[in-house]
Amino acid sequence: MKETPEQLQLEAEIKSQAQVFLKDFNAALPESMELEYEGFYRRGFFVTKKRYAVIEDGEIIAKGLELVRRDWAPIVKETQEAVLMALLSEGNAEKAIKEVKKVLKRIRKGDVENKELIIHTQINKPLTEYKQVGPHVVAAQIIEEHGIKVTRGTIIQYIIKKGKGSISQRAVPYEYSEGVTYDKDYYINNQIIPAVGRIMEPLGYSKKDLQDLAVGEKQQSLDAFF
């Protein structure tokens, strides 16, 4: 979105006044303390003060969201980034919704490669000490059955396959996932919707709305929020 001359002038004035404030404020602080200027952001999205995303020079800077965490699948991170880019860079809510629908459609069609679905989780203690056997532990046990030792600090890569039983029991190490069919519902309801929902729900788009998108029952615009 191209800025108008008035917007550019206002931005320059804000940056100038920020430097004046910074100089005056730091002059009143003890020598060991200093307030730093972090940046100027045209748009930002805040879930909490420690979970937010802003945009600077076309680049998303995020804290605490899924796109900067390794325990979420790559397809989730890419979707969340695409949604944030549409909202923060372009202010385009319709494009954000289209990005979500496109990914949901791919997952439903089974048109996603296993490498896009990998979840990374670190083993932080011996496997025998886990009282709650999560999917990463099950995947680690399978790896050990193949003669590979898993120790504290090992990063386990796994996907959730389609089938019966708990999610944990359906974890498959990525290196042994060739030919495995992924669980579409898991990746939609436990990965995509929660991550996208953190952005969309504060804008009035409920979890139910997102679930409806997943099955193509409903389309809704967020233009009113921008």
Q: What does this protein structure show overall?
A:
40% of the residues lie in helices and 13% in strands. The protein contains six helices and six strands. It has helices spanning 5-27, 74-88, 93-109, 135-145, 184-200, 207-214, and strands at residues 44-48, 51-56, 59-63, 119-122, 155-160, 171-173. The strands form two sheets. The chain has a three-stranded antiparallel β-sheet with strand order 1-2-3, with helices on one face. The chain has a three-stranded antiparallel β-sheet with strand order 4-5-6, covered by helices on one side. The two termini are 14 Å apart.
Largest sheet: 3 strands, antiparallel
- Shape type: flat
As a percent range, the share of strand residues is: 5-15%
Task: Tell me the Rg in angstroms.
Answer: 22 Å
Q: Which class best fits the helix and strand makeup?
A: alpha+beta
Mean pLDDT: 85
Query: Number of DSSP helices?
Result: 6
- The rounded distance between the terminal residues' Cα atoms is 14 Å
Number of strands: 6
Residue windows where pLDDT falls under 50 for at least 5 positions: 217-226
Secondary-structure element series: HEEEHHEHEEHH
Helical proportion, percent range? 40-55%
Could you give the order of strands across the largest sheet? 1-2-3
